[in-house]
Amino acid sequence: MSDIKIAKNHGHLWGRRDLVTRAGWFATLATLAVATGGFVRLLFRRAPLEPPSVFHAGTIADYQPGKVSDRFVRAWRVFIVHDGERLFALQAKCTHLGCTPRWYGLETKFKCPCHGSGFHADGVNFEGPAPRPLERVKIWQDSAGQIWADVDKRFEYPRRDVPDAFVAVRGGGKASG
To answer: What is the pTM of this model?
Structure first.
């Protein structure tokens, strides 16, 4: 019979194998916990719901005939144009690549700073790579005479003369929609 010696722990609580095994299990469980937390977070909305698309644009008297207002470009990406007969809203988004065009009053045109597309005051393209005119945004006047616009409702070039695409201006600043 041979002598069988049993290894003793010599005063250590864990051996190397026990330590590596436990570290491996800890890493595995920590990875699973983080993955589960990420999955649960995906189930809940973190972004706010859709922002409102309708905004108050003032009254007809706020806009001078023959002028383009850019006061809503930063907040809503909309130009309000008063051509003397109608008030309409153009989406300030170039139809080429979506850059924000600028209004040049002395030249009476919109010009895209990215690739040079040019648009007349009514939004029709006349130079540059833009494939179509600027889109119109739904605009209307309520019974109290207030002008409202909805940036989610847009009209492309062939459908620009539908009633929701402009507010007709009558003499003396009165309007009909």
So the answer is: 0.68
